Amino acid sequence: TNKLVSFVSDETSITMFSSEIVYVEGKVHGCTIHAAKKSNPIAQNFAEFTEGLWDRFYNCHRNISVNTAFIDRIDGSTAILTDGRKLKVDKPKITELVELMESYDSN
After folding, report:
1. Which residues contact 41 (CB under 8 A, 6 or more apart)?
2. Which of 34, 37, 105, 107 is least buried, going by the fewest C-beta atoms within 10 A?
């Protein structure tokens, strides 16, 4: 289910629905939450933050969890997002991601 998430970025408290997050990128110290118009670095661990996100998130690469609602298409080992951004997809995960996206489209 889509849930409300809260986090602190640059000493500012932010609350948004997980469906508004395009993808989360793990960093050495924390992670960055990429939304449609802004990216927010946070100190929270990538695994901890992504654990409870909406079920439409998929770990497409070692430190990237993408909201599949924002994937326009898969081109080779790249996910092309609806806003034109491109994310790497690990080759072993391509088929599973395509099947997952097709299952959402059929529902």
Report:
1. 9, 10, 27, 30, 31, 32, 33
2. 107
